[in-house]
Write the structure tokens for this entry.
Amino acid sequence: MIQIAVLGCGTVASGVIRLLRKNGDNIEKQLGKKIVLKKVLARTPEKARKLGLREDQICGNAEEILTDPEISVVVELIGGTDDAYRYITAAMNAGKHVVTANKDLIASRYRELTETADKNRVLLAFEASVGGGIPIVDPIRRTLAANEIRSIYGILNGTTNYILTRMTRDGMSYEDALRQAQELGYAEADPTSDVEGGDAARKIAILSTLAFHTPVAYEDVSHEGISGLTKTDIAFADRSGYVFKLLAVAQKSDGGCEVYVRPALLPKTHPLAAVSDAFNAVFINGDAVGEIMLYGRGAGSMPTASSVVGDLMSVVKESEAGRFGPSHKLPRIPVSGIGETPHVYYIRLAVEDRPLVLANVARVFGEYGVSLASLVQEERGNDGAELMIFTHASSENSVSGAMRALEGLDCVYNGAYRICLEETKSTTHRLSPDGL
Ligand code: HSE
């Protein structure tokens, strides 16, 4: 028998407790021993009672767990960074293995946490910190370890993917779709980190750390969200054969890596374009494996519990085998935001509808070396119009410079919007003969 404790009694913790109960026999068969849930740290004991826990299992004080020599694995599911960091560190210093779903913590303090684990010869597992129920941390760390990973493209936030799906399929407004995502429980307590890209930035920081063997922290990842998108953009993209997605991107560059989150247009034929509702997916390009895509539920009680309990079982097996993983002293390589590789851009401008406006707009683009591929104008009444523009492949710097200059023109109203088109990164959707 192995005795464990769970810190927290929220959505994921309740999934873990239910899963251990439901599949306990199967888990015991695989491990050759029983996992016994000795304690659950619950700030609201009533919640724990509702999960069918006995009084002696419910505890209100983390110390009781952290100092209990019989508990050999602590499962941290309280979230946040302060208490969680203290508890995880104390548990590892007390010789306990730790399983966590805490993306905030792993994305900001990976190096310290793994050093503490190494120092104490304990295991720290965090599969559930990215992509909920999708196996992604372990595949990158083990199954794909022989590859040089060239790029990762992820749809890593269910809330924004749900919003974009509803706006595209049902013509819903951004505000209505966000409200529905919150009602369905996809969004974080404060949805800002979902819609402004912070949640996806934390997840891609973790994946790029593992894929590129260098510490990438949340603070290193530039991010931009979807709150500037309108129904006009969505409808125009749809007519043009594209869909909007919030993409988390990590790719190798000369001597370093580019890691960023931003809305992107994908051709409808791209495999990631088909990932809808609150689903997540990760599209990886490795030099040996080629392109692979992992898809599934990125959040939710039972899908996330699937990853947590899977980690728990691996920790039990590996600790018995004395496998404590490699040392994590990773060399630091430069991490930057989006580089200068040219991309096609979609740009929406609200402008006055009078002579010479188009000529002035075209002149500014020309001055920054941005060549226009197509332009559609739609009337907006009151002498106003909206311009929807596709550029030819241009660098981020040139487009940003042109946008700043355009916003300074009297004939351009506030709220200019630009978005990058990720067209050339997948080969599978172009059906090349050898897939590479
Ligand atoms: N708020 C997150 C999402 C939940 O929408 O994907 C999982 O991290």
About this structure: The radius of gyration is 24 Å. The longest helix spans residues 301-320. Residues 132, 157-159, 186-188, 194, 199, 298-299 surround L-homoserine (CB under 6 Å).
